[in-house]
Design a protein that fits this description.
42% of the residues lie in helices and 22% in strands. By secondary structure, the chain is α/β, with parallel strands linked by helices. The chain has two domains: 118 residues, Response regulator (Rossmann fold), CATH 3.40.50.2300; 94 residues, Winged helix-like DNA-binding domain superfamily/Winged helix DNA-binding domain (Arc Repressor Mutant, subunit A), CATH 1.10.10. Strands 2-1-3-4-5 form a five-stranded parallel beta sheet, with helices on both faces. It has a four-stranded antiparallel beta sheet with strand order 6-7-8-9, covered by helices on one side. Strands 10-12-11 form a three-stranded antiparallel beta sheet. Helix 1 links the parallel strand 1 and strand 2. Helix 2 packs parallel to helix 3 and helix 6 crosses helix 8. The protein is elongated, with a radius of gyration of 18 Å.
Length: 222
Amino acid sequence: MKILLVEDDRATGSFIKRGLEEEGFVIDTTLTGEAGLQSAQSYSYDLFILDIMLPGIGGLEVCRLLRQANINIPILMLTGKREVADRVQGLNSGADDYLIKPFAFEELVARIRALTRRAKQPVHSELKTGHLIMDITTRKVTFNGIGIELTNKEYAVLEFLMLNHDVVVTRTTLEQHIWNQEFEGNSNMIDVYIQRLRNKLGKDGAALIQTVRGAGYRLVKI
């Protein structure tokens, strides 16, 4: 899952980015509303986290402009303001949720997962493709009832393939969703991770991930 965080306070942004990456999310960060808008219009994301108090274009205006441009990705607003009127203004600008600083990091993660589940129906906590099961709450993966240990990046690749099962996913699409803007990948990075997943799925599970020559990969039921 790929998230754009727009937060002008470097310490806060660094804390959130580090924590969410430890949870397996891919995070791009910007310090201004203008840069956030540019990234949102140039890259593909699953969620936006916007601080309200930003230099230049504020978070509320960024939110309004994103909705005006028909970008309907879930938006979570962050603010130190506690007044009900401020929350109402944020929601009326097009935000999907509102979190007041300071907040418990566990609550931030829970709200992110809730927003993305809502955006991607059905809202079950499990993804299933045949006998391959992923619990997105506990991050446990099993195939034929046997647990599979995955790194954060392996998990992210498999999650994206499961969310798009039976669809051909290109290498470029995987790169855009699994790595952030700072990534300088080589031409075979995606292939390396696909091979790692096949190895961990074992002889029976390796066939789940099909190579579509000249196009990318497709996860299928077996």
